Amino acid sequence: MTIIDEFRTLDTAPELRLTPGEEQRRDHLLAAIIQLDRGPQVDRATAAGTARRTTPARPRTVRTTVTIGATALLAAGALTVGGVAVLPSVVHHLLPGVVEPGTTAAGPLSAVSLASWTSSPAHPSAASTVVTNATAHCSRSMPEPSGNDAPVTVSNVDQRGSVTTVVLSRGGYRFFCLVGADGSGHSELVDGPGNRLPGVAGPASLSVQSADDSGSGATAISTLWGEAGADVASVTVSAGGHTLTATVDNGLWTAWWPPVGDSVDPLDGTVTWTTTTGASHSSSLNALVPGN
Predict the structure, then answer these.
(1) Which residue from 144, 140, 181, 145 is spatially nearest to 161, judged by alpha carbons?
(2) What is the largest CA-CA distance in the chain?
(3) What is the mean pLDDT of residues 84-104?
(4) Which of the two residues, 146 and 187, has the higher pLDDT score?
(5) What is the rounded distance in angstroms from the CA atom of residue 110 to the CA atom of residue 185?
(6) Which of 187, 237, 240 lies closest to 63, judged by CA?
(7) Strands 210-214 and 62-63, sheet pairing
């Protein structure tokens, strides 16, 4: 038995299988990564040993969701997916939830939850029932290294229909979390002690630090988040067949949407942001990925 097999026995969440659509997107993503792999060889420690891979000349932050508990991921240090080392800071933890009858939860949210999505978010207070419920679900998914007894700080509250996203800070760690009314969803480690985000070039600057697509068909979703300079007042994203208002708070901006048709690459789009001075800036999303 490998160390990954041992960790899986400790994971209380039900094992989820990739759908054919997700497998196809995973293979397409890995092929794109291999195509971009032109840099020097480096070694990365993985749960299975040491994986040999190259440093991409143009790093992309699109993630493939790994369906294994976050506690095991952090303990393992890293996983290998299709021969590519995936570090804990880019791995998602699927939250257990109850799927509404008559829906297929190929992704982290049900089709019923996604049908309520809106392009402009509401921002309920941290004390509201919807936010306290989302915080409770997301807090339980946080692994032990974040300090489960430490107080939780909530920012970037974004409610679109029955789905709420928040950024939770606890024990020096920050997590981006998306959760439906039924408690299903996923969480992602943003940063932590010794592994902080790099910061933006200036107070009017924006960056993309994570982009993810998961699920398929009626349960497909795309998520984006990144850093925002202190002068960034608003962010509008055009991607996946939608134009939507992102949420900006506490130095981060967050957005998510159900893509239309085959528009599944969350970086295939543009972003416009306005600063407190009224100045407007636009860019392709891909150009805001550090290193691009």
Answers:
(1) 181
(2) 59
(3) 37
(4) 187
(5) 9
(6) 187
(7) parallel
